[in-house]
Every structure is written in C-alpha cells, then in structure tokens.
Design goal:
Length: 187
C-alpha cells in the first residue's frame, strides 16, 4: 500500500489521455457498452470532462474520477454551473487510494472555485462521509432529468454528495423538495 507522498495526482483533458490510459479507464468503469470504445470516440464523447488521476511510482493508475462540465443545475429560475463528479473508482479497493484522490480533487476544485456534486446509492454514503463530504440523504428524488422531452426523476441513485458546494448552494440543496426540485441540464 502506497502512502500519499508516493502517489502522483494529475488532471487531464480527454485529448491528453494516452491509449493505454483510456483502456485502463474503460476497464475500471466496467460499462459493457463502452468496453470497446475507440480512443477517438472516447476523446470526443468526454471532451467537456476532466480526468482526475492518481498514479503510483511506476505510473500505474490507482484511482480515477471524471469531472463532467457538461452539466448544470437549475433551481427555481436560476441555472447554476455546478460540475458533476462521476466515474469514481479505485483500481485496487480499500487501500486508501480513493480517499487520497477525493481529497486532491476537492482541493483542486476549491482552488479553482469550481462547485461540484456527485450522486450515490445509500450504501455508499458512509464512504463519502468518512472522506469528510456532506451528504444530502435521499435527495435524488427531488432531481429531474430530461429524456425525449419529458422530465423524469432519476432512480439509480439515492443521495447527493457535496464535493465542493459553497454555503449558498448548500442552502439551496437543503431546501429541495417535490415542490422545489432541481433540474439537471446535461448541456
Ligand atoms: C468507492 C471506491 C472508489 C472507494 O475507494 P477505495 O480506495 O476502495 O476506498 P478507500 O480505501 O479510500 O477507503 C477510505 C475509507 O473509507 C472506508 N470505506 C471504504 N468503503 C466503504 C463503504 N462502502 N462504506 C463505508 N466506509 C467505507 C474505508 O474503510 C476507509 O476507512 P479509513 O479511512 O478509516 O481507513 C472504491 O471502493 C470503488 O472503486 N468501488 C467501486 C466503484 C464505486 O462504487 N464507485 C463509487 C460510485 S458512487
């Protein structure tokens, strides 16, 4: 198990990722439809994302996350440019690498004044809490996403994770309800 000082943290655009890095990311994400995605398609599909990578001394990837900037949140009449944490995995789990990477991402985004949220199932919330993040429990039911011109409530997650929300945004997320939902805009 490597210590934090033995690890390297890097932020890359999809265009800067090597073929080998893209293969490692796709394998770790384990999305059946994406397994055979070609390098150029990957770079294009994720051109508005950043990849936050933790590596070891032999350049081996330890943990990966994507920050999606093709994402905004509309609450009331205001559209907030909040980024989305997604595709967060540790290559070898339970060695502390996920926690190190989350800490580095948080610091990086805060320095750049970028607010970000993620989503998870109830069973993962204690993990994020143990990494010092604020959870809005069972708040995903107050989100709305659009598909085929219809708004629907996403069901694959339960909780919203505040990675780097500032206090005004935290107050907005605390007040979400069926009457005051947040609309997720993937644009
Ligand atoms: C979730 C994930 C990224 C965590 O990374 P990890 O490197 O395995 O976790 P860490 O080793 O950093 O764990 C940090 C701490 O959280 C604890 N922890 C880990 N998983 C936990 C869980 N499911 N519930 C509660 N605590 C947990 C660890 O015991 C550790 O505690 P410590 O700091 O007191 O020692 C990793 O398990 C993973 O890739 N899972 C599969 C993909 C996934 O579920 N991604 C998240 C989608 S929301």
């Amino acid at each position: 198990m490597l210590t934090q000082t033995q690890t390297t943290y890097a932020v890359k655009q999809s265009s800067a990722l090597s073929d080998a890095e893209i293969r490692t990311i796709l394998e770790s994400w384990d999305v059946a439809d994406w397994k055979d995605m070609r390098t150029e398609e990957f770079r294009h599909r994720f051109e508005t994302s950043e990849f936050h990578l933790l590596s070891g001394p032999d350049q081996q990837m330890l943990s990966i996350a994507r920050i999606n900037f093709k994402f905004k949140v509309k609450i009331g009449d205001v559209i907030y440019p909040i980024a989305e944490l997604v595709g967060f995995v540790a290559i070898e789990i339970l060695k502390g690498y996920g926690k190190i990477l989350l800490g580095r991402i948080k610091e990086n985004l805060q320095n750049r004044k970028i607010e970000a949220v993620g989503f998870c199932k109830n069973k993962s919330s204690t993990y994020y809490e143990s990494c010092g993040l604020r959870i809005f429990y069972n708040a995903v039911k107050y989100l709305r996403e659009k598909k085929d011109d219809e708004w629907f409530t996403p069901t694959e997650d339960d909780d919203i994770i505040s990675l780097t929300l500032d206090n005004p945004a935290i107050a907005l997320f605390e007040k979400l309800s069926d009457e005051n939902p947040a609309y997720l805009l993937f644009e």
